[in-house]
Design goal:
Layout (H helix, E strand, L loop, with lengths): L10 H7 L6 E4 L6 H8 L4 E4 L8 H9 L1
Parallel strand pairs: 1-2
């Protein structure tokens, strides 16, 4: 692989591809970054941020993704 390229692993996709159970969590109401820590502590494989049925701003979604 050339020096200017890198590979990003996707553990969720790898888990599903191997036939293992992947469990996620949906956030519709909690706007604070603590929901990310809760999902990680509870050992969820992913966190879905529902943008269709809530009023999350782009700034809020950005903060959740960074966390």
């Amino acid at each position: 692989m050339p020096d200017n390229q890198f590979e990003i692993r996707n553990p969720l996709r790898e888990k599903m591809a191997s036939g293992k159970l992947a469990v996620g969590m949906i956030s519709r109401l909690v706007r604070g970054v603590e929901i990310v820590a809760i999902a990680k502590t509870a050992n969820f494989d992913c966190l879905l941020i529902d943008l269709e049925y809530n009023g999350f701003s782009n700034e809020t979604v950005t903060q959740l993704c960074i966390a």
